[in-house]
Structure formats: structure tokens, C-alpha cells
Design a protein that fits this description.
The structure is a single chain. With about 325 residues, the protein is α/β, with parallel strands linked by helices. The chain is built from six helices and eight strands, in the order αββββββββααααα. It has an eight-stranded mixed β-sheet, with no helix packed on it.
């Protein structure tokens, strides 16, 4: 008696095949491939300085991998643990260092591997030493503190010297010295106030740069995903609804370029810095706009089917829920 393949069996086989195609396709479109060609190394830091997953791992400016995960270390309390994916064939000396650096004036973070001289190479799932490179704003604040300390020590020595020769000088000379010390005190006070204002404004700028970093990382990640989806699904199905996503991404890139130009003008001292620092309303509006855009890009990446409708066996999936906020968005 010949075995007859029923309609139910055909549907079951079609469902299993669809699941396999989806899994393999998801791996391919994500850019990681079905079979991994990378090896994993770990690094620990006291503070990751706004580094985000999918950030670049570079050696001498050349990208050799990416940051896969960021989490609190379970082995060492108070440390943050990074999981790095790098090219499998890359040989890294065991005494090398993974330093968190800024790629541009906006503060975009990446991990730069400074190679050591050891003949022993790192193996898969081994630990590499982690370091942090100070950014432009942090370096400026750190440089101001020793200058203030030196000025205070100089002033103390000067006051001691004045007291020592106080009985030798006449009244007019003493008055002149007192006037000079008073002026010096005022200058030091003004400089201290300037340093305090710089530290206060640094927190605002750092917050804005963190939002820009998050926005830039999500934009780069989603840009690759969207391009891969459009290229691969175009040759495998005719049921994909045409969505002008590429134009949206280009507009976002243009917006980011305008933001970079604006920040350059701020750094050039044309007056825009004072407006951004003192106008809280402008700062809050810009921050809210970036967070909203970040949430949208995250939701596109997390739920692409809400924006790209694919008909499967005549059915059309409806997505009416509102975009979900990104995990690193502020409330």
C-alpha cells in the first residue's frame, strides 16, 4: 500500500521549512553569518564612558570586530565586563590592552586594541587588560585642577613672604603689596568660578553627547540591517511591500551631519555655546527629539514587521501597537 502525503503533512513540512529559512535568513541579514568566524575575548573597566553594543573594535584605526555585550562583571564587583567579537584569524599578544577611545569630537566611543610584544597569543574566551582614554572635555577639567592647586600654593607662599617683611617695608609699600594681593585673590577667585562653571556645563554637554552616541550607534546598526533586508528579500520574494526606508535613513544621516556642523560651530566660539549652555528649553527640546528618534530606530530594529509587511499564504499581519522605547532611553 503506497504511502499518501496528505494536505496536513504538506502544510507541516512547509511550516518547518519556513522556520528554518527564517532562522538562517535572520542570521544572514544580521551580518553574523550562520557559522561564526570570530573569536570571543573579554575586558573589564571601572566605567565604559558611554560605550554601546555594536561599537567598533579597532587596531591602528582598522576595524577588526565589534562590541557584542556590556554587563556588570559577576567575577569582580564594581567592574563592567565587555564581550568583544574579533576576527578569528587575528593574533593578539597576551600583554595587549583594550582601550576605550573617542573616535571624533562628538565623543563616539570605540575599543582600540594596543598590541603588546609577547609571543604568547590570546585564545578564545580569554581576558585582555582594559584601559580608558580621557576625552577632550575630561582632559580640560583634569588639567585645570593642578593649575588651581599651584596657584593656591603660590598665593600661600606669597602671603608668608609678605608677613615676614611686613615690619621692614614702609606704609606705602605695604599698601601697594596689599592691593596687589587683593587683585591676585580676585583673579584666582574668577578663575575658580570659571572652572566651576566649566565642570557644571560639562555634565550637560556629556549628557547631550551620550544621546548623540546612542543615536549614532543605533543609526549605524539599523542602516546595515535595512540595507541587507532590502537586498536579500528583493531576490527571494515579490510580496514585500515597498517602503522608502533608505530615504529616511539618508535624511537621518543628513540631520546628523547638520548636528556635527553645529557642534563644530559651538567649539569655534561663535556664540552658539553660550546659547546652548544657558537656554535650558533649547537643550531639553533637542534631548527629547533625539530620544524620540532613538526609540523609533530601536523599535524598527526590534520589530521590523511593524514597518515592513510581508504576505505569507494570503495573510497580512497587522501591527498597531505604538513604538517601544529603547532600553537605554531615559524616562
Amino acid at each position: 500500500m503506497a504511502f499518501k502525503i496528505t494536505k496536513e503533512i504538506k502544510l507541516a513540512l512547509l511550516g518547518i521549512l519556513s522556520i528554518l529559512v527564517f532562522v538562517f535568513g535572520y542570521k544572514y541579514l544580521k551580518g553574523t553569518g550562520v557559522f561564526s568566524s570570530t573569536k570571543t575575548i573579554f575586558a573589564e573597566y571601572d566605567n565604559v564612558q558611554g560605550l554601546t553594543p555594536a561599537s567598533y573594535v579597532q587596531i591602528k584605526g582598522f576595524t577588526v570586530g565589534s562590541v557584542n555585550a556590556i554587563e556588570l562583571s559577576k567575577e569582580h564587583a564594581g567592574k563592567v565586563k565587555l564581550t568583544l567579537f574579533i576576527n578569528k584569524d587575528l593574533n593578539i599578544p597576551i600583554d595587549s590592552k583594550a582601550k576605550i577611545v573617542s573616535l571624533d569630537l562628538l565623543g563616539t566611543k570605540a575599543v582600540n586594541i594596543e598590541q603588546g610584544v609577547s609571543t604568547t597569543m590570546l585564545k578564545d574566551n580569554e581576558m585582555i587588560a582594559g584601559e580608558i582614554e580621557l576625552g577632550t572635555i575630561e582632559s580640560l577639567g583634569a588639567s585645570a585642577t593642578p593649575v588651581m592647586d599651584n596657584a593656591k600654593n603660590t598665593l600661600a607662599s606669597l602671603e608668608t613672604t609678605v608677613q615676614s617683611i611686613n615690619n621692614i617695608l614702609d606704609v606705602n609699600t605695604q599698601n601697594n603689596l596689599k592691593s596687589s594681593i587683593s587683585n591676585l585673590n580676585k583673579t584666582l577667585s574668577d578663575f575658580s568660578q570659571f572652572a566651576n562653571e566649566l565642570n557644571t556645563q560639562r555634565s550637560k554637554i556629556s549628557g547631550l553627547l551620550d544621546n548623540l552616541n546612542s543615536f549614532s550607534a543605533n543609526l549605524n546598526k539599523n542602516n546595515n540591517t535595512i540595507n541587507n533586508v532590502l537586498k536579500n528579500t528583493e531576490t527571494t520574494t515579490n510580496n514585500l511591500s515597498k517602503v522608502n526606508i533608505e530615504a529616511t535613513v539618508n535624511e537621518l544621516k543628513s540631520t546628523l551631519a547638520d548636528l556635527q556642523t553645529t557642534l563644530k560651530k559651538v567649539n569655534s566660539g561663535n556664540g552658539s555655546l553660550g546659547l546652548l549652555m544657558n537656554d535650558d528649553k533649547l537643550y531639553k527640546n533637542l534631548k527629547n527629539t533625539l530620544e524620540t528618534t532613538n526609540n523609533l530606530m530601536y523599535d524598527i530594529n526590534a520589530h521590523p514587521s511593524k514597518y515592513i509587511n510581508i504576505n505569507i499564504i494570503g495573510r497580512k499581519q497587522k501591527n498597531e501597537s505604538a513604538p517601544k522605547p529603547a532600553p537605554n532611553s531615559s524616562n
